Amino acid sequence: MEAEEEGAQLAARLAAGGQGHVLRFWPQLGAAERRELAAELRGMDVAEINRFFHRARGGVAAGAPDGRMEPVPRDVLGSASRDRGLLPGWESRGLSEIAGGRVCALLLAGGQGTRLGVPYPKGMCDVGLPSRKSLFHLQAQRLRRLQQLAEERHGEPCCIPWYIMTSGRTMESTKEFFQKHRYFGLKKENVVFFQQGMLPALGFDGKILLEEKGKISMAPDGNGGLYRALGAHGIVADMERRGVRSVHVYCVDNILVKVADPAFIGFCLEKGADCGAKVVEKTNPTEPVGVVCRVDGVYQVVEYSEISLATAQKRGADGRLLFNAGNIANHYFTTAFLKDVVNTYEPQLQHHVAEKKIPHVDMETGQLVQPEKPNGIKMEKFVFDIFQFSKKFVVYEVLREDEFSPLKNADSQNGKDNPTTARHALMSLHHRWVLNAGGHFVDENGTRIPAIPRLPNGRSDAPPADVTANLKDASDLPIQCEISPLISYGGEGLEKYVKDREFRAPLIIDEDGIHELVKNGM
């Protein structure tokens, strides 16, 4: 009887919100299917979803932003390549904050590996490194090394809490993966999982779509769902309880990410920023990446699809693209700013609408429809939507080859952003670390393999800085070289392993020592 009463209450609430069709197949459902659908609907605010739809579809278009865009001014910009003299000071400040327990990392890990062709979360992906480490494993070990560096510098044990935002689809498998691997050597109490919200997919008429007769078509609410989730799960309060003041937010799929990067954190602290964006220089006008800039004086990310080619091609006096601050979803926030966002600004954020081909159940026939063209929308918010509320915003530019190689697609011929490109990017970086620390690679004949000068960003007028920034393997494929994050976070401390030594690839340097997997042609 209770189940019937609940069904009637659900029907009344859905009908009042114009979504009564969702229960169209209720009579055909078994008891278990009814329970699952009722549970899904119980947590759904239909009136709110309708409001989201009307706001998202009815938002006044401001027109193309081209004429209102301004590049990032130099006074808010720090650069890992152009401000080398300031880097040690920024890094020292960041390590001091880490040593004091005032820094945490926040990982956006809600994405499934669907485009990678795997049925599990992206963070569990193994891109084929000699160590077979997953993205989660690499990031956890970078945190462990960073804690060690801060302890060595300041003489006090410390920890960097790691908050991991999953989605409904990735929560359980992510937690199981961490448990299976004993949290990769981190303390369980310092790894905090929480879940972002989900929103139903809607038809162009605002009607909720069904994935099955007893299942709503749901999708995560975008990485900007972070801010609502922070409030819903008490995460900001937990950060405050732990004494955290600086938060590094990043996406799971970048194999080169410097988790809780002390130089980035130190730069933001020195600038007194409440919000910062790490960027890479965009060198190709048509590269499909959003740019950080000001529009009508307000900082935001303008998507590449919103910029005309003429604007994208504009160059400054130095020959660089005028709008070159490529967004890589890598951000700094103060805990105080996040608290203001959660309590005050989050409800003001408007959803972005993505028109999609969404498989759905036909309400008349009950048959599953696989549309050939977009038939509905998914609504999401983006993590960078809150830049507009910052009182002191800064931008930190890093070298792409040092810090950005995203994993988005399955391996394919001439593909990009796939396991092969990610693996090559990491091995190429580690090769340069070895060269910079005074090591050398030799071929099967014992002849040193040359390293050739690379023109940064294709520009011949940029002065060479050091080996790390300017030497690259002469062959198309990188030297096979992998250095455990437990040995080096960013290339530091390798001289004792490699200085004035010659190696044959593949080379692995880890906590068990130096391993040359091929010797004397064997």
Structure described in brief:
This protein is α/β, with parallel strands linked by helices and 522 residues long. It contains 15 helices and 27 strands.
> Main sheet: which strands, in order across?
2-20-12-15-11-3-4-5
Tell the overall outline: globular
Distance between the termini: 75 Å
Classify the helix fraction into a percent range: 25-40%
In what range is the share of β-strand residues?
15-25%
* Uncertain residue segments: 453-475
Instruction: Count helical runs.
Output: 15
Would you tell me the structural class of the helices and strands? Answer: alpha/beta
Please render the helix and strand layout as text.
Elements: H1 2-16, H2 31-42, H3 46-58, E1 69-70, E2 77-79, H4 87-99, E3 103-108, H5 135-154, E4 162-166, H6 171-180, E5 191-195, E6 198-200, E7 202-203, E8 210-212, E9 215-216, E10 218-220, H7 226-232, H8 235-242, E11 246-251, H9 262-270, E12 275-281, E13 291-295, E14 298-302, H10 309-312, E15 325-334, H11 335-345, E16 352-356, E17 360-361, E18 368-369, E19 376-380, E20 393-398, H12 400-403, H13 419-436, E21 440-441, E22 451-453, H14 467-470, E23 471-473, E24 481-483, H15 495-498, E25 502-503, E26 507-510, E27 513-516
Parallel strand pairs: 2-20, 3-4, 3-11, 4-5, 12-20, 21-25, 24-26
Antiparallel strand pairs: 1-13, 6-10, 7-19, 8-9, 11-15, 12-15, 13-14, 16-19, 17-18, 22-23, 26-27
Helix pairs in contact: 1-2, 4-5, 4-9, 7-11
